[in-house]
Structure formats: C-alpha cells, structure tokens
Amino acid sequence: MKYTRTIMGAYRYKVHSAIYSWDTPGSSTRPACNVTEIVQGILDKPKNRGVIPLNADLIDDPAPGCAKTFAIIVSIETPDGTNTTRFCSSSDGPTININDSGVECYF
C-alpha cells in the first residue's frame, strides 16, 4: 500500500474514499460530493495530525441550511509503524480527528 507522506516518525495517510453528503428535503436519496483528493491534500500537510475541518475547506456549501455528513475510509500508519484502516463519519461539526474516531476496517 502506498502512503503519500514519507516523513520518519510521522503519521501517514492513504485516503481510499471520502464523501461529503447532505439532506435534501422531500427526497429519499442523499446527494454527495467525492472529496477524496481534497481530504488527501489536507492530511498530506506536514503539521496535520489526522484532523479534517468539516466546513467550506472541503466543498463550497451546495445546500445551505441542510444537515451534512462526512464519511471516510483511510489507512493510517502511526509513527511506530502500526498500520490500520478505519471508517469514520461525522455529522456537521468543526472537525473530525481520524486518529481518534471511527472503527477499524478489514477488506
């Protein structure tokens, strides 16, 4: 598995999928934006420690006033070399820390 950052002793991330979705009144489906590349760029920043802002840094708000949800599947390599893949999700909020949330995935 290829991780993008190569700084020794740092967390490294490989985003498999990141989706930002929102409610649409009167519809049974939820529109969504694929934000995988944007989130990978955020996690690639040298000072990032797994914190993703859940705001307009991900997308311009396509549905002002509608509830939003963020979901991500990401592989994480910790500074000690431990590897894990996690699924994390969050409703609207200021940030999500993928190192401290979600569940471990196996696939």
What does this structure look like?
With 107 residues, the protein is mainly β. It has one domain (12-104). 8% of the residues lie in helices and 38% in strands. It contains one helix and seven strands. Strands 2-1-4-5-7 form a five-stranded antiparallel beta sheet, covered by helices on one side. Strands 3-6 form a two-stranded antiparallel ribbon. A hairpin with a 5-residue loop joins strand 4 (68-77) and strand 5 (83-91). The longest helix is centred in the middle third of the chain and has 9 residues, at 36-44. The radius of gyration is 14 Å and the shape is elongated. The model has no long low-confidence stretch (mean pLDDT 85).
SSE order and pairing:
Elements (H helix, E strand, L loop, with lengths): L11 E11 L9 E3 L1 H9 L6 E3 L14 E10 L5 E9 L3 E3 L5 E2 L3
Antiparallel strand pairs: 1-2, 1-4, 3-6, 4-5, 5-7
Strand tally: 7
Task: Enumerate the spans where pLDDT stays under 50 for 5 or more consecutive residues.
Answer: none
Number of helices: 1
Helix content: under 10%
Strand order of the largest sheet: 2-1-4-5-7
Any idea what the radius of gyration is? Answer: 14 Å
Number of domains: 1
Distance between the termini: 13 Å
**What's the order of the H and E elements?**
EEHEEEEE
Structural class by secondary-structure content: mainly beta
Query: Could you say which overall geometry the principal axes of the C-alpha atoms support?
Result: elongated
Provide the β-strand percentage band: 35-45%
